[in-house]
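Re: weekly structure request thread

Next one in the queue (266 aa):
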Amino acid sequence: MTIDNRAIDDALMLVSALSECCFFALLVYKRIWKSLPLFTLYIAWAFVSDVAFFLIASHAPHSTTLAYTVESTIDSLLQYCVLVELIWSVLRPLRASLPRASFLFLLVIIAVTGLIIWPLAGQAVPPNLAPEGRMAFHLLQTFAILRVIVFLVMACFSQILSIGWRDSELQVATGLGFYSIVSLIVAVMHTHQLVGDQYHWLDQAVSVGYLGTMTYWLLSFAAKVRKRAEFTQQMRDTLVLIGGEVRADGAALRSSPRGNQEGRKR
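Done, posted below.
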């Protein structure tokens, strides 16, 4: 019995696009887009890019490599924005106690982490890809590892930050983490495998993993959104400590001769 891989690919892409469309509608209906606008934009982009890539593959297959490179670049940029948004959203109750440069510091930390991951992600790039495809694949694997790291950090500090599996931020991170782990496992297996039916079946497994993530998000966000829990005593003590240190540093700067001089200049 011959397996029609093209038909399976088309079916997976169709179901993925349908699930993305339904999930985007759910985010709008539940007004989740107000708290996670960049994640909502990312889901909309995923739907549009999947439909566009399907049309390109069907009518201009010679342009699929270029389309894959462009799509991967935009996708990675949006993923970076989503990761920043997730962490900043989790820190919402802390923002009043954080220094003004905290958001910029968060941008730099995630970017630097991505640069550190870049050489490691290169080990998971299959050798049989074209140069353009290798660069795009390398970029995607870098962000896959970065998504796993963000998920692990949020999960480890969930109790301190008073977030649980019913909070939208952790649900988004969990879905991204699961899909990233699947794609990383497949990428590592690709590096030790020749091109063939088994190679393509692994690619289809990644698509199935993505559908699993979309199903998890649909079921999770369809449920009633839980109100954010109050901070634990541990986090309250940490807030007091951070706030006290920030105010002390500010007072010391203002009382110093240089600080007084800068204050007069203003």
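Residues 246-254, 256-266 have pLDDT under 50 and may be disordered. The CA atoms of residues 53 and 67 lie 7 Å apart.
Next request, please.
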